[in-house]
Amino acid sequence: SDLACCHTCLKALQSGMLTSTNADLAFTKDAFSNWKNAMEEKKGFQKQESSDSHMEAVTRCVTAGTRNSTR
Fold first, then answer.
1. How far is CA 11 from CA 1, 25, 40, 48, 52, in A?
2. Can you give the pTM of this predicted structure?
3. How far apart are CA 71 and CA 69, in angstroms?
4. Radius of gyration of the chain (CA)
5. Which of 49, 54, 10, 1 lies closest to 28, judged by CA?
6. Structure letter (DSSP) for residue 31
7. pLDDT digits (tens, 9 = 90+) for 2-12
8. Where are the alpha helices (DSSP H) in the chain?
9. 28-46: b or e for each residue (b if 16 or more CB lie within 10 Å)?
10. Is 10:43 a contact under the CB 8 Å cutoff?
11. Residue 38 has pLDDT above 70, yes or no
């Protein structure tokens, strides 16, 4: 079946930058598969993109990338 993960959230989780209790399992470990609601407002991708865990993952990955690029 077709599954999708959030690359940023998965990378942050696997790198230990995001705790598994903060991670949205539907876009990390379990993978997203509810295609019926994928594009609905406040569901699916939009819900993931605006979630606290996604915003934390983006911030931590950007910070880590900035830190690594200045070395």
1. 22, 13, 25, 15, 16
2. 0.79
3. 6
4. 13
5. 10
6. -
7. 999 999 999 99
8. 7-14, 44-49, 52-69
9. beeebeeeeeeeeeeebee
10. no
11. yes
Question: What single-letter amino acid sits at 32?
Answer: F
Question: How sure is the predictor about 66, in pLDDT bands with cuts at 50, 70 and 90?
Answer: low
Task: Give the 3-state secondary structure percentages of the chain, helix then strand then coil, rounded to 5.
Answer: 55, 5, 45
Q: Name residues whose C-beta falls within 8 Å of residue 43's C-beta, 6 or more positions apart in sequence.
A: 37
**Helices and strands in the chain, H and E counts:** 3, 0
Asked whether 65 and 15 are in contact (CB, 8 A), the reply is no
Cα distances (Å, whole numbers) of residue 70 to 11, 66, 67: 20, 6, 6
CA distance 22 to 49: 14
Tokens, residue 25: 């399992």
Looking at residue 38, the DSSP 8-state letter turns out to be T
